[in-house]
């Protein structure tokens, strides 16, 4: 999506100019804090100065698979939104093999407890597609599940550690839910077979979702040694290790292939 260069420059400036700035990193880490956003708000400078940034790229090795399209003809509202069919988002390979929609999170090495953000995360059913396809949030944080369509959906979570939910949303509106256990699970709509999403729930704010180019960025890491997991709904998961020392930024790349 955007280059990491600006983020790197910001980091250097942040370290030089903002040394000693100790704003809490507890509230950061929302996936909406897009990687490498130009100019980053003043708040993000504090966040960067408070901890290290881990960034990297997730790649798919091999030929990019063709994006499947599912017919939505069974529902007039959905069909109107996608007359050519609904493109599947479960295998999206972008520029230079970048793999989108991979959940990257710190699986091991995180100490302490972290307060959930007050701002809800949003899972929006719009045009009979979940937006975003992968939504991440913290334990206890509100997930607003919204129906923006003039047709009925049902929301069926395939969770194991959190109680399974299955409820209808027959009309536009929102339901707020929270999750008590860290878990990555799928959500589907039993009415529209093509509709699926991924929800990632974490007990700390150190997670991200790879963008269309496979890039991810996790900010605010305290010094330490971490186990990092990259999780993809079709290709499984991988682990890497990273050591953060002196607040210096680190990179960690992952690569998936069909053979795994
Ligand atoms: Cu639906």
Task: State the CATH architecture.
Answer: Sandwich
CATH classification, class level: Mainly Beta
In whole angstroms, how far apart are the ends? 27 Å
Helix % is: 10-25%
Taken together, the total number of domains comes to: 1
Q: How does the overall form come out from the CA principal axes?
A: globular
Order of helices and strands: HHEEHEEEEEEEEEEEEEEEEE
Find the structural class using helix and strand composition: mainly beta
Within the CATH hierarchy, at the fold level, what is the topology?
A: Immunoglobulin-like
Give unreliable regions as ranges: 1-49
In round numbers, the mean pLDDT is: 85
Tally of contiguous helical segments? 3
Give me the Rg, rounded.
Answer: 19 Å
Roughly what fraction of the amino acids lie in strands?
35-45%
Strand ordering within the main sheet: 7-13-12-9-10
- Count the beta strands: 19
CATH-assigned homologous superfamily: Cupredoxins -  blue copper proteins
* Major sheet size, sense and barrel closure: 5 strands, mixed
Bound molecules: copper (II) ion
């Amino acid at each position: 999506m955007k280059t990491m260069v600006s983020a790197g420059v910001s980091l250097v400036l942040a370290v030089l100019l903002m040394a000693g700035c100790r704003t809490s990193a507890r509230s950061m880490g929302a996936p909406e804090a897009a990687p490498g956003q130009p100019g980053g708000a003043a708040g993000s400078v504090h966040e960067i100065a408070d901890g290290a940034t881990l960034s990297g790229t997730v790649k798919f090795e091999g030929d990019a698979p063709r994006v499947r399209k599912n017919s939505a003809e069974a529902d007039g509202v959905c069909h109107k939104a996608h007359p050519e069919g609904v493109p599947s988002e479960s295998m999206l390979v972008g520029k230079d093999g970048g793999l989108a929609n991979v959940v990257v999170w710190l699986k091991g090495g995180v100490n302490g407890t972290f307060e959930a953000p007050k701002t809800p995360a949003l899972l929006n059913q719009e045009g009979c597609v979940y937006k975003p396809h992968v939504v991440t949030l913290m334990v206890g944080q509100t997930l607003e599940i919204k129906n923006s369509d003039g047709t009925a959906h049902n929301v069926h979570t395939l969770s194991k550690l959190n109680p399974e939910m299955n409820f209808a949303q027959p009309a536009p509106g929102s339901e707020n839910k929270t999750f008590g256990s860290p878990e990555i699970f799928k959500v589907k709509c039993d009415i529209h077979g093509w509709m699926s999403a991924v929800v990632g729930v974490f007990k700390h704010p150190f997670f991200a979702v790879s963008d269309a180019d496979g890039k991810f960025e996790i900010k605010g890491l305290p010094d330490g040694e971490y186990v990092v997991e990259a999780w993809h709904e079709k290709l499984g998961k991988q682990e890497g290790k990273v050591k953060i020392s002196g607040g210096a930024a680190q990179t960690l790349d992952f690569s998936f292939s069909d053979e795994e």
